[in-house]
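Lab notebook page, bench 4
Experiment: in silico fold of construct C2
Operator: M.H.
Input chain length: 149 residues
Purpose: comparison with the prior construct
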Amino acid sequence: MKKVTYLMILMFSLVLMTTSCCKDDPIPDPVVITVDDLVGNWDFVSLDFNGTTYTDCAEVLTGSGYEYVTFSLNVSESEIIIKDECINDVGSPWNYTLTNGIIDFLDGGFQFEIQNTDTFDPENPILELNLLTDSDHLLTGGIYTLEKQ
């Protein structure tokens, strides 16, 4: 009886080992944000800059001469309009490109890197943008969060 029990446990272990790891879990396809995902109105949610989160026009930043502390975007298939919420300024429409997660308009005058390409959800679209443009008046290195309306 011991031999039969031992043999049964051995066979069960062998079957379990060969079927439990037959193939790896599939790797999900990477999320690619397209122009179609960008088209629409995007409202400012927050800005993370130098360890502080801002949710409105912060006097400490606007009083220091920074522009585009808070902003919204209106995006079509070929043009983008940026509105500075702090000074109630609506800019002109500019042509833009989207390449490798970089939104570029004004021929490099404004460049945003999309930070959340791996977690972007078209059903609940939120963008996290890092301003790459180097300027004394822009918050380079800040992470802007915008939500599509």
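Observations: The chain is about 20% helix and 35% strand. The first strand starts at residue 40 and ends at 49.
Next step: discuss at group meeting.
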